[in-house]
Amino acid sequence: GTQDRTAGLISLPMDLEQLGQRILGAVPPGALVLVIDRAGRIVLRSQEAATWVGRQVPEPMRTLTVDPSEGVGQLISIDGVSRLFAFAPVERAGWSVLAGVPTAQVFADSDAAFAQGGLWTLAILVLAFGLAWFMGRGIVRPVEALSLAAAHVADGLTSTRVQVQHAPRELETVAQQFNHMLEARERALLRLQESEERFRTLAELSSDWYWEQDAHYRFVRFDGRVLKGTGIPSEEYVGKTRWDLPALNLGPADWDRHRALLDARQPFRNFEILRRGRDGQEHWGVVSGSPIVDDQGRFCGYRGVGSDITERKRLEQERLRLSLHIEELSRRMVQTQEEMRRRFARELHDRTSPNLAALRINLDIITRASPAERASAEFAGRVEDTQALIADTTVSVREICAQLHPP
Question: Helices (H) and strands (E) in the chain — how many of each?
Answer without folding.
Answer: 12, 10
